[in-house]
Amino acid sequence: MRVFLIISKDGDAWSLAQRIQDEGHRALVYINCEDKRRVGNGIIEKHPEQRVLIGDKGKIDHDVHHSLMYPKPDCIIMDMVSEGFGTLADEIRKEDKIPVIGGSSWADKIELDRPYGAKVMKMVGIGSPETYKFTDYSKAIEFVEGSGKPYVYKPSGNQPTSTTYVAKGADDLIGMLEFYSNIKEEFELQEKVEGVEISSELWFNGKEVINVNHTMEEKPLMEGGKGPKAGCMGSVVWIGSIGSRLYKEGIGKIVPALRKMNYRGPIDLNTIVTKDRLYGLEFTARFGYDALFVLLEMYKGKIGDLLYGVATGIQNDMEFRSEIGVGIDLCVPPYPLSVKPDLYKDVLIQGISKDNNRHLWLYDVYKVGDRYLCSGNGGDIGAITARGDKVDGFSPIRDAKRRVLRTISNLVIPDVMYRSDIGDRFPEEFKQLQSWGWL
Predict the structure, then answer these.
(1) How far apart are the C-alpha atoms of 375 and 378, rounded to whole Å?
(2) C-alpha distances in angstroms, 384 versus 234, 291, 296?
(3) DSSP 263-303
(4) What phi, psi does 331 have (nearest 5°)?
(5) What is the DSSP string of 366-394?
(6) What is the pTM of this model?
(7) Which fold has domain 3-110?
(8) Count of beta carbons in the 10 Å neighbourhood of residue 49
(9) What is the rounded distance in angstroms from the CA atom of residue 52 to the CA atom of residue 63?
(10) CATH number of the domain at 130-191, please?
(11) In the chain, where are the structural domains located?
């Protein structure tokens, strides 16, 4: 039996602890944000430490740090990038001599500092759209007026992803810049490129790549790509190859830097691909939600052994029960907005059973007795996942989606929201990527 400690910013990966516990290990979860600490109660074990580990501007409380090391973990899981968390991960590896998966100061910088991420792409030879950095909205408006072109507005740092805006033209972008002008944070305007949007992820054990997978994700809340941007409303994930053009011209180029940084864990490159070119958009140097859970649904081995193996560098490959999977996110209002109406606190979630629980990766949920409830921290209930096989005349993607929707149909959640079109664009865009020679 190993002891795992999940050090979490907001509780995103607490459901990993549930799986690790089921495999016979001990898994403790510490959530830094005090407002989010109810998630997972009654389901997983929480670390007894209640003080705040990382405060304003990433300041680490080292008394809390040392307290979290008891009982001494065999492996630490860092589930999110944020100021201070990467520095803490580096310190734990160096001072406490404990294996850590995810988290490093370099990972924080390459994801949160978008101009730095673009600089890294340029240094390693990954093409990217022209990107312009701003802190002054009036200057950004003047720039757009001068160019007359549409751009993609991207927030930097830890701003909500819901503020990302893809302009149709210069006029609507100017209107959005005027609307966002009260945000006192750095942002970027990125050249708009038309093509197939796809993410490529590799898992790295500090020495070598042990797996490559790709994701087509849907961020808008509503079907057809309408509504506000959410973290993720659903994904199709499939296993890739280091021999593909998509890997070689994209995420594969970052491998020398990963070796230099002794990186441990997954890292993802979001791209737009045309017939002739790959454009890198941004890095995700951590677990990607909900794609992580779809991948683990497909994974053949034990999750605890995988995470420990990547953290220590002893895991050399990953085997899967299927090549493709689907995940659909379930949520209730006010998601994806950051408000707290009492109406959606303690919403009863019915239909979770021993049979379907292994397909549920919960976020904003806790348990009282035998009742599952929404804990009232944003309304993102969790991801429902399924792997795809070629059975009964169904293609693997249709089989995976059929299984996900079947699980959802057995759940009863008042005012639940989800997208039933997840995966619909996959067959056509997959064929397009194949015809262009990327796969």
Answers:
(1) 8
(2) 9, 11, 12
(3) -EEEEEEEEEE-SS-EEEEEEE-SPPTTHHHHHHHHB-S-H
(4) -150, 165
(5) EEETTEEEE-SSSSEEEEEEEE----TT-
(6) 0.93
(7) Rossmann fold (3.40.50)
(8) 17
(9) 10
(10) 3.30.1490.20
(11) 3-110, 130-191, 196-436
Copy the structure tokens of residue 334.
């006010």
d(CA 106, CA 316): 23
Contact 16, 303 (CB under 8 A): yes
Angle, helix 303-312 to helix 14-22, in steps of 10 degrees: 110
Superfamily of domain 196-436: ATP-grasp fold, B domain (3.30.470.20)
Q: Which of 161, 180, 159 is nearest to 83 (CA)?
A: 159
Which residue is listed with tokens 């991420």? Answer: 117
2 and 75 in contact (C-beta within 8 Å)? Answer: yes
Tokens 């649904």 belong to which residue? 297
Per the structure block, which two tokens stand in for 342? 């009492």
pLDDT tens for the chain, 439 residues: list them. Answer: 999 999 999 999 999 999 999 999 999 999 999 999 999 999 999 999 999 999 999 999 999 999 999 999 999 999 999 999 999 999 999 999 999 999 999 999 999 988 899 999 999 999 998 888 888 899 999 999 999 889 999 877 556 666 788 888 889 989 989 888 887 778 889 888 899 999 999 999 999 999 999 999 999 999 999 998 898 999 999 999 999 999 999 999 999 999 999 999 999 999 999 999 999 999 999 999 999 999 999 999 999 999 999 999 999 999 999 999 999 999 999 998 877 777 788 999 999 999 999 999 999 999 999 999 999 989 999 999 999 987 766 799 999 999 999 999 999 999 999 999 999 999 999 999 999 999 9
Closest CA relative to residue 8, chosen from 49, 62, 63? 49
Element (DSSP H or E) covering residue 236: strand 226-239
For residue 36, the 8-state DSSP code is G
Please state whether beta strands 45-46 and 26-31 pair in parallel, antiparallel, or not at all (unpaired): parallel
* Contact indicator for 31, 306 with CB cutoff of 8 Å: no
Q: If you search the block for the tokens 């899967």, which residue do you land on?
A: 320
Task: For residues 310 and 303, give the distance between their C-alpha atoms in angstroms, rounded to a whole number.
Answer: 11
Element (DSSP H or E) covering residue 245: helix 245-248
Give the span between the Cα atoms of 287 and 82, in whole angstroms.
Answer: 13
Torsion of CA 59, 64, 66, 68, to 10 degrees: -120
